[in-house]
């Protein structure tokens, strides 16, 4: 990877590792749906001029059903649930649990016949699940089981979203898909956000939502497009393994979250499991995973 590629990679890793910290700060004062609305509405409006200039929205009309499904499973449900999770769990723990997305995606692709698992990948899945079990067993209280169920839904949604892109929307312009999804999600959130809006909020909470929308959503996607153009979509997968480290570090430095035994043991196991579980020495013969612009763009979108 070139020097510019590494710079873009580091920038995007930071942009997509920071949201867990910002969400944690924001949900202390805002309802999670208000945070999600602010993120999607502002982020979508920032990206809209770029999508219009690229004429990237009109091609979406013929794929509107799958676009709605993608928006629901990748943004609408996960982003609200993620906010609820962070009212119960530390941002570092949440970020690490979300790192299970590649493993869950590998399982879904295998079950649906679009991928296959060898011994190395099965070993990775087992290691990853052991890491999650230790993290949950050592750090999570019984009262937090609802948060675990919510994060499971988030992880499944994040895993299914890119699969929908790769199989149903891969021929569409990436910036069009992302911009439309953000705006559609904001429309869904809007009535709930209006009802649940707070009467007052601190600058810290407002600033967190603004940075989450402008930097961690809109700017992050623009950096992602530049990284794909510079180094190809394959590099995007690596960011999944860096995000938890950023989330854990920022949680400890900014929010004074403890570096627990569960994090120390679970982090290396989950990351190792994700690497091995998603290892592919050669594409499977029957693979339908596309490498078009949209599938590349959401390889690690969320975050």
Automatic annotation (TrEMBL):
Pfam families attached to this UniProt entry: EamA
Query: In which compartments does the protein localize?
Result: Membrane
Q: Name one GO cellular component term.
A: membrane
According to its UniProt record, which protein family does this protein belong to?
Belongs to the EamA transporter family.
* Organism listed in the record: Microlunatus phosphovorus (strain ATCC 700054 / DSM 10555 / JCM 9379 / NBRC 101784 / NCIMB 13414 / VKM Ac-1990 / NM-1)
Q: Does the keyword Transmembrane helix apply?
A: yes
Entry keywords, A to Z: Membrane, Transmembrane, Transmembrane helix
Q: Region labeled Disordered — which residues?
A: 284-303
Domain named EamA: residues: 5-136, 146-276
**From which lineage does this chain's organism come?**
Bacteria, Bacillati, Actinomycetota, Actinomycetes, Propionibacteriales
Protein name, UniProt field: EamA domain-containing protein
Q: Where are the transmembrane segments?
A: 7-27, 33-52, 64-82, 94-111, 123-140, 146-165, 172-192, 204-229, 236-255, 261-279
Q: How does it sit in the membrane?
A: Multi-pass membrane protein
Major localization class:
membrane
């Amino acid at each position: 990877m070139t020097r510019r590629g590494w710079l873009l990679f580091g920038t995007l890793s930071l942009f997509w590792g920071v949201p867990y910290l910002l969400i944690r700060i924001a949900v202390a004062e805002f309802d999670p749906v208000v945070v999600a609305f602010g993120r999607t509405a502002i982020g979508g409006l920032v990206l809209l001029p770029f999508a219009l200039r690229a004429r990237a929205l009109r091609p979406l009309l013929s794929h509107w059903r799958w676009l709605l499904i993608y928006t629901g499973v990748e943004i609408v449900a996960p982003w609200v649930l993620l906010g609820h999770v962070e009212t119960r769990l530390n941002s570092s723990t949440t970020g690490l649990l979300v790192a299970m997305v590649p493993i869950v995606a590998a399982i879904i692709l295998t079950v649906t016949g679009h991928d296959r698992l060898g011994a190395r990948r099965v070993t990775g899945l087992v290691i990853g699940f052991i890491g999650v079990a230790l993290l949950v067993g050592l750090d999570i209280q019984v009262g937090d089981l609802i948060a675990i169920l919510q994060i499971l839904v988030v992880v499944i949604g994040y895993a299914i979203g890119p699969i929908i892109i790769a199989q149903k929307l891969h021929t569409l312009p990436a910036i069009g898909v992302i911009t439309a999804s953000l705006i559609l999600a904001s429309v869904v959130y809007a009535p709930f956000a209006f009802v649940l809006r707070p009467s007052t909020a601190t600058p810290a909470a407002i600033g967190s939502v603004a940075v989450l929308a402008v930097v961690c959503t809109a700017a992050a996607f623009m950096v992602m497009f530049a990284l794909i153009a510079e180094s190809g979509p394959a590099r995007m997968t690596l960011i999944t393994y860096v995000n938890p480290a950023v989330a854990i570090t920022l949680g400890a430095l900014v929010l004074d979250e403890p570096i627990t035994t569960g994090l120390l043991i679970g982090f290396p196991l989950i990351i190792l499991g994700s690497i091995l579980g998603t290892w592919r020495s050669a594409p499977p013969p029957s693979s339908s995973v596309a490498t078009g612009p949209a599938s590349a763009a959401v390889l690690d979108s969320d975050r």
